[in-house]
Automatic annotation (TrEMBL):
CzcB-like C-terminal circularly permuted SH3-like domain segment(s): 397-457
Listed name of the protein: Efflux RND transporter periplasmic adaptor subunit
Membrane spanning stretches: none
Gene Ontology molecular functions: transition metal ion binding; transmembrane transporter activity
Ranges where the CusB-like barrel-sandwich hybrid domain occurs: 199-310
Segments of this protein annotated with the region Disordered: 95-117
The keyword Cell inner membrane appears for this protein: no
Domain of life: Bacteria
Record family assignment: Belongs to the membrane fusion protein (MFP) (TC 8.A.1) family.
Keywords, comma-separated and alphabetical: Ion transport, Signal, Transport
Any one of the GO BP annotations: plasma membrane copper ion transport
Domain CusB-like beta-barrel: 314-390
């Protein structure tokens, strides 16, 4: 229903519904009712003033009668002025116009001498926004007039013009394009693991018997060189005796080294010129005892693990990144890790490795993060919440996410050209994050993009393009032909 029809219906309702009211009172109350209705509609439309329609174009039922001199005098029934002139009948199509700027009556296409300032009608478009045009005036199936499109309204390609009143009512807002750092954190679960390069096993390379085990148990922290276990090995003693009897023979020393005898034990044999009954094995590095298998009196074979020690000053966090986020993860990116045992505290590391395989079951890829652990607060197999800061560290051209119209097949922003003119611009997007989208092609810093009501303007732009395409195929009436 058009706005004029709404006003007409309101006035008719005032007249019909107030019949009983007016019957007992003077007819002078009708002008007040009409003025009230007109003022309410002017306030609703932002102060738009009524526009007179020509008598020839008047359609619809008679709504009321007005003073022929334009005075604020109205009547429900036909009447005359004191000097005998009849009041003018006002029909439904003649009253209020809700356009922001009244448009002049279209000059006839048949006239060759249009008056100055008159615009020629190019074609008529469907009032309901359907992709249907006509070279001559017509009505749709509901009796609504097709809307004329005047010369000059389609001269700027895909630029859409919006009147100031519509801009205010639809709440159109725009913001400048700027360069900024765009990052989107990837949050994934992970687990704390030992650094494989910092794990050491204490073992012999010959048959041996455990003579003595120091008071070191699983979980204890040890320092490099700290005694762990003393073992007796007939093969080691035989090689030590050969070293003492032939001090210049290099082969005897090399044999002890091949049996993994500690260097300090070999040096002690050379200095004292005697072979000890049991050789002491010491901790090869600072760390935590993860495993103790040595028991006094036991027999150990070559390669049997006596102690397993790990350095936990640096740990790994293994995180499972979904396949769709993998393209934004790079080695060297900073990572924030939180564990449940230290609430409110985060540990900072970096991406060290992206494993070259995707899990078939979970469609994730494992990412290794190196994390310093100087206070030993992190322990192996802890659960971790991992946040990877993806995106470029340098500022890039970016627009607010609300400015991007993404249909999947295309990405478009609306440039604000000022004075109510807007231009759709197709763009190529990059990283998204922090409420912004990187624009790799299509806009430059300083351009203004629409961030609110952009879907309405885009829809009007698409409609305009469709109408122009259809109008190019339509036949415009010749100047000698009357519509």
């Amino acid at each position: 229903m058009s706005r004029t029809a709404i006003l007409a219906a309101t006035l008719v309702a005032l007249a019909a519904g107030g019949g009983g009211y007016l019957a007992g009172r003077e007819e002078a109350r009708l002008p007040d009712l009409v003025e009230t209705a007109r003022a309410s509609f002017q306030q609703w439309t932002g102060g738009a003033r009524p526009q007179e329609a020509t008598a020839a174009a008047a359609t619809g039922p008679v709504v009321y009668y007005r003073d022929p001199d334009g005075k604020p005098a109205y009547s429900q029934e036909p009447r005359s002025t004191p000097d005998g002139r009849a009041f003018v009948a006002v029909r439904a199509s003649e009253d209020v116009s809700f356009d922001d700027e009244p448009e002049p009556e279209p000059a006839s296409n048949a006239s060759t001498d249009n008056p100055a300032g008159a615009r020629r009608v190019l074609y008529y478009r469907n009032p309901m926004g359907l992709p249907d045009t006509s070279p001559v005036p017509k009505k749709d199936s509901m009796g609504m007039d097709y809307i004329p499109v005047y010369e000059g309204e389609a001269e700027e390609g895909n630029v859409v013009k919006v009147s100031p009143g519509k801009l205010q009512r639809t709440g159109v807002r725009s913001e400048p394009v700027e360069q900024r750092v765009v990052s989107r954190p990837v949050r994934v679960p992970g687990t704390v693991q030992l650094d494989e390069r910092r794990v050491t096993v204490v073992a012999t390379r010959s048959e041996a018997f455990i003579d003595k085990v120091e008071g070191v148990t699983t979980g204890d922290r040890v320092r490099k060189g700290q005694p762990l276990v003393s073992v007796y090995s007939p093969e080691i003693n035989a090689a030590g005796a050969q070293l003492i009897s032939n001090p210049g023979f290099e082969g005897s020393r090399r044999r002890l080294e091949n049996l993994n005898v500690p260097p300090e034990a070999i040096a002690e044999m050379e200095r004292t010129r005697r072979v000890p009954m049991a050789v002491t094995w010491s901790a090869p590095r600072d760390g935590v005892v993860l495993e103790r298998n040595a028991v006094e009196g036991m027999r150990a074979g070559p390669g049997d693990t006596l102690f397993r020690i790990a350095d936990i000053s640096t740990l790994w966090v293994l995180a499972d990144v979904p396949e769709y986020d993998l393209s934004s993860v790079r080695t060297g990116q900073p990572v924030s890790v939180r564990v449940r045992s230290a609430p409110g505290r985060s540990f900072v590391g970096k991406v060290a490795l992206i494993y070259p395989q995707v899990s078939k079951e979970t469609r994730t890829t494992r990412v290794r993060i190196e994390l310093p652990n100087p206070e030993a607060l992190l322990l192996p197999d802890m659960y971790a919440d991992v946040e990877i800061a993806t995106g470029a560290g340098q500022p890039v051209v970016a627009v607010p996410e609300d400015a991007l119209i993404d249909t999947g097949a295309r990405q478009v922003v609306l440039l604000d050209r000022g004075e109510g003119r807007f231009e759709p611009r197709q763009v190529k997007v990059g990283t998204r994050g922090n409420g912004f989208v990187e624009i790799r092609e299509g806009v430059e810093p300083g351009d203004r993009v629409v961030t609110a009501a952009n879907f309405l303007i885009d829809a009007e732009s698409n409609l305009k393009a469709a109408l122009q395409a259809m109008a190019s195929a339509a036949t415009v009436p010749n100047e000698g032909q009357k519509p």
